[in-house]
Amino acid sequence: MQRLQGEQRYALPTMTGMPAFTVVWIGQLVSLIGTALFNFAIGIWLYQQTDLATTFTAMIFFSNIPRVILSPFAGALVDRWNRKLTMMISDLATGTTTIIIFFLMWRGSLEIWHLYVLMAVSGAFESFQFPAFSSSITLLVEKKHFARTSAMLSLAEEGSRVLAPILAAALIVVVKLEGIILIDIITFAAAIVTLLIVPIPQPKQTEAGKNAARGLLKEAGYGFRYFLANPSLLGLQINFFMVNLLAMSTALRTPMILARTGNDEVALGIVASITAIGGVAGGVVMSIWGGPRRRIHGVLGGLILVNVGRAIMGLGHEVVVWSITGFFVLFFIAVCNASNQAIWQSKTPPDVQGRVFAARRFTGQLSIPLAGLIAGPLSDRWFEPAMTVNGSLAPIFGGLVGTGPGTGMSLLILLAAVIGLIVPSVSYAIPLFRNVEDIIPDIEIDAADESINAESVRKGSRKPETKPLPR
Predict the structure, then answer these.
(1) CATH code of the domain covering residue 297
(2) Is there a domain that residue 460 lies in?
(3) Full residue range of the structural domain in which residue 130 is found
(4) pLDDT tens track of the chain, all 471 residues?
(5) Is residue 471 part of a domain?
(6) Rounded to 10 degrees, what is the CA torsion of 303, 308, 309, 315?
């Protein structure tokens, strides 16, 4: 007994809850700053190799498509494996690909195709990071903090984008692109160190988890079956798929600004920084506020406002307009993402969240590489030639977006945003989508024994009618 008491006296306290999450979040923030520096600098390098939007948007395709395609299998494996170890290996492997890029650049032998291949490999390992980390948060913090933790993740991502253009503009003159890549490599260590010192809990198996354990292929498909059995959740996925598919501003903003400003890297840096400040502001507001009580308003209302901002960005001719609308768009993306993540965390059993969140990532983000694949050729081959002074579309749209280099991309951003307004607007009119928080019961997580039970949204209400989950 005395020995046990002595051991307890000198044992280090276990870090849990928001403090544990905050430590991991800090490591991710440092790592994201390094990654944002790399992405900003390498994006400029890529566009300047050919002066074609396709060169830049192809990187979006190759870096995202492996991450998206592998997500369902990654989610199934994450639910089988130790989530902490999975995150560490993912960070280490991604850092290794960056080291290879550094040595190729240092030797002066880096080619565009090298970058595409290595970014694809990095994306494949990153497919494990999102389901492992996001599903771990559910057991790290209380349910009331779900929206806040999602907002903090958005804050880290957008905060890194604020600093990246400013730092890259200053550093690239001194340390050149090779130095920026080396900084990215160093920052990967921060993410790994914080994971080492924070315990990441493993969930106990629920009935849903037992039903999902049917072999890797069936487990990979479980996440899709989960929201196909719940049309209200499927409605959320449809919205994100369509809005991401029409996010031409994401794919074309960098080449559009460079084309319209004569390759002015300072102008691009100003727009990128102010845009990212909008994401930071949205993350801060959501971290403090926690989002609207009816989170679906944060999702659908946010998506509508995001597309309003994208449309005005397409109409803009100057840095000030692109900056303000970029701020506006990223602010409401942060609100939208935090609200959406809180809904899913409240409705999904923790021991199957890896599979379900990976399926979400697949269906929601498959459209991002597709948008990049479509936007570049569409811009270079049709919209840009059509918006020259004597182009076929210049008489119709020249008064809106102007004519000359970059205006074809501006027009494509505008038209895609106008179409993008339709999806969330229609969803608001459909009760099955609008009332997702009432239709799907919350998952109650008992912190004392980590047991998980479904509960009705309102005490004493009739049990919601949902389809049984397929086995």
Answers:
(1) 1.20.1250.20
(2) no
(3) 15-455
(4) 344 344 333 333 456 677 778 887 888 788 878 887 887 778 777 877 777 777 877 887 887 788 777 877 777 777 777 777 888 888 888 888 888 888 887 887 878 888 889 888 888 887 777 777 776 776 677 666 676 777 777 667 666 766 676 677 677 667 777 778 888 888 887 778 877 777 776 666 555 555 555 666 777 778 888 888 889 999 998 898 888 888 877 778 888 998 999 888 778 878 887 887 887 788 788 877 877 889 999 999 999 999 999 999 999 989 999 999 999 998 998 899 889 988 988 888 877 777 787 788 788 777 777 787 788 889 989 999 999 988 999 999 999 999 999 999 999 999 999 999 999 999 999 999 999 999 988 876 544 333 334 333 333 333 333 333 333
(5) no
(6) 150
The sign one gets for the Cα dihedral 315, 321, 322, 326 is negative
How many domains, the chain? 1
DSSP-derived secondary structure for 109-153: ---HHHHHHHHHHHHHHHHHHHHHHHHHHHHHS-GGGHHHHHHHH
How many CB atoms are closer than 10 A to CB 161?
Answer: 25
DSSP secondary structure code for residue 320 in this structure: H
Which residues is 452 bridged to in the sheet?
445
Assess if residue 426 is contained within a domain: yes
Q: Is residue 364 part of a domain?
A: yes
